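Support reply, case 0932

Customer input (verbatim):
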Amino acid sequence: MVSLNDVIYKLEHSLKPYFRIVKREFNGKHIYIETDRDKLPVAYDVLSEFDGRLIHVTASDMGLAGIKLFHVYAFDHIDRYSHVILYVMLSRENLKAPSLASKTYQVNWAERETSELLGINFESHPDPRHIFLPFEWPNPVEST
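Our regenerated output:
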């Protein structure tokens, strides 16, 4: 039987040297891992091998530090309430991240929403249209 530690071990070896466990919460069931933006597609592939479900994509404005982009994966089939939370720090000067929309349709709306509200450019996203703002709106809400 696969354990969450097996998942983390494989993820660590796939993301090296851009892998750092930042914290564990809820008796080790929520594992926060910092990585590099370019490793997000690799992380998706690895976590999908273990039937991890990408359940949430969001971002948080961290002020002068930049934007923190989160990908939350559920592993309830391994251990109830288990989650791997990947995040990357994006500088305000380079708000770009690879889109996962070509790998899984679930991220389509979340990437568009995050792009519109915080200005992250999800490279190669198949449908970068605005969701809430008028089509002609030139910038993300955050920049106005």
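We compared this against your earlier run and they match. Two observations from our side: Residues 4-143 form a domain with the Beta Polymerase; domain 2 fold (CATH 3.30.460.80). Residues 14 and 42 are 7 Å apart (CA to CA). Please reopen the case if you see a mismatch on your end.
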